[in-house]
Amino acid sequence: MIKKVSIQLVLLMALAVPVLLTGCHGHEGSAPHKAAHDAKKVPASAVEPVRVVDDGGVEYIVVPQTALFRQGALTGVLAVNADGRVEARWVSTGHTVGSEVIVLAGLERDSQIVGSYDPELEGGVFVKQNQAAAEEVQSNE
Fold it and tell me: What PROSITE patterns would the database entry show (predicted)?
């Protein structure tokens, strides 16, 4: 009986651990929805890149604690996708270092996130560029 339970537990852990460590692999969820999200925009000043910390040759992605939100057992951040829309990204987190949290899975080193989670934001809203950033992008094209 003990061996049977132990084998089942080992098999369950062998299946669960890789799923937890790999994150969403681009299958992002959506933040809680409200009605007309197209009218809302996130100011560009609220968006920041994730920080990459090099600890003796090992790199860690860290985000502010304020960027994290919880939905049931899941932990997420609002990230900006390639077309400038905000979307929820489910992440696996590690230790807290000061006011930041190590992200083990779910974000890339070049990810842009909303630095402080706002429950009023939802998936699909656009990041509103400030005029200087828009002019810089146009001049580089």
Answer: PROKAR_LIPOPROTEIN
Angle made by CA atoms 117, 119, 123, in degrees to the nearest 5: 85
Which tokens is 30 given? 């959506």
pLDDT tens digit string along 81-102?
988 889 999 999 999 989 999 9
Fold of 2-140: 2.40.420
Query: What angle (nearest 5°) sits at the alpha carbon of residue 42, between those of residues 64 and 20?
Result: 45
Closest by alpha carbon to 48, among 17, 24, 80, 5?
80
CA distance 1 to 141: 68
Please check whether residue 9 is in contact with residue 96, taking contact to mean a CB–CB distance below 8 angstroms: no
pTM of the full predicted structure? 0.62
DSSP string, 60-106: EEEEEGGGEEEETTEEEEEEE-TTSBEEEEEEEEEEEETTEEEEEES
Look up tokens 């049931």; give the residue: 72
Of 113, 110, 93, the residue nearest 21 (C-alpha): 93
Six token digits for residue 123: 């998936």
